[in-house]
Amino acid sequence: MNPVIVVHGGGASSISKDRKERVRQGIIKAAEVGYKILTEGGSAVDAVEGAVAFLEDHPEFNAGCGSVLNVNGDVEMDASIMSGKDLSAGAVSAVRCIANPIKLARLVMEKTTHCFLTDQGAAKFAAAMGVPTIPKEQLVTERNIKRLEKEKNEKGALKLGFQQDLGTVGAVALDCKGNVAYATSTGGIVNKMVGRVGDTPCVGSGGYADNDIGAISTTGARESILKVNLARLTLFHVEQGKTLEEAADMSLGYMKSKLKGLGGVILVSKAGDWAVKWTSTSMPWAAAKDGKLHSGIDLHETSVADLP
Question: Where is the site labelled Cleavage (predicted)?
């Protein structure tokens, strides 16, 4: 089985010109990181964790050190990961002061009998696992301070609709043994209420993985994604015989028609096919397979290059 990985940097209504190249290079590098893990014999879970952790460490993306701020100006992060081999999953929400929530989500998956830990419970578990804490200031960027100020000044109230530059990050992979996995991580939405949890850590919404079908990671209008269980809905269509592209179009179309929610998905099938689809203006993505790297940001824009 030839390994494949696909990564995304979140659906967005716009990406400013000064950021676009940094975003492009970041998403390409994340795919290269994950693909290297796969070609060296690593598992699909290893690959998606590695790719997403790289993006959590990249300030241009809304995850980890690039996370947006809640109403109090604090960072609260969500993440989830799932193995298609046995449907094992791990998720965390409203976590603070750690660099890589996706790594904590994997620890939940592998070191507990639970699937989901939140807030103080997740913090205590992280401490027990020896996960280092970092000062909260290390997760707060000047750009996100300005974004919070702008959101408060312009809206005056919490807006749960589609925001610019959402920047959720995610990855799906198929390894050489035929196992699939997904990982998704986010800082949420600007000016969110304290304790708000979106779709990202919810298995079936933020992503899903099953060796008998494939794997998916989602991004976009979070509450809408939660309401339609976008990830599992899309894979259901695949189970019913639709192609990856057809399944994505159907589920994204359903979410848009029912809730006016925009978003995007990345998928890999059990056979190693892959697809990227979105209804937002743009979605940074990259896919690596058979020594080739495919990438893009805007609709109808795809670049292909040889992998290093």
Answer: 167-168
125: domain range? 4-306
CA torsion angle 58 62 64 70 (round to 10): 140
- Tell me, what CATH number does 292's domain have? 3.60.20.30
CB burial of residue 119 (10 Å; 0-12, 13-18, 19+)? middle
> Structural domain tally of the chain?
1
Beta strands in 84-204 (DSSP E): 89-95, 116-118, 169-174, 180-186
In the chain (308 residues long), the average pLDDT of successive 10-residue segments reads 97 86 97 99 99 97 95 97 99 98 99 98 98 94 91 63 64 99 96 95 99 98 94 99 99 98 97 97 97 96 95
Give 156: exposed, middle or buried? Use CB within 10 Å, 0-12, 13-18, 19+. exposed
- With residue 208 as reference, give the H or E element that holds it: strand 207-210
This prediction has a pTM of 0.95
To which residue do tokens 């997760």 refer?
139
According to DSSP, the β-strands at 274-278 and 282-289 are unpaired
Place of tokens 């060296």: 40
In our burial notation (b when 16+ CB lie closer than 10 A, e otherwise), range 214-232 reads bbbbbbbbbebbbebbbbb
In order, the DSSP letters of 25-36 are HHHHHHHHHHHH
- In this prediction, residue 167 carries a pLDDT of 65
- Rounded CA Rg of the chain: 17
Using CA atoms of 129, 132, 136, 139 in order, give the dihedral in degrees to the nearest 10: -100
Q: Specify whether 168 is catalytic.
A: yes
Which residue in 118, 133, 168, 184 is the catalytic one? 168
Q: What pLDDT is stored for residue 308 in this prediction?
A: 86
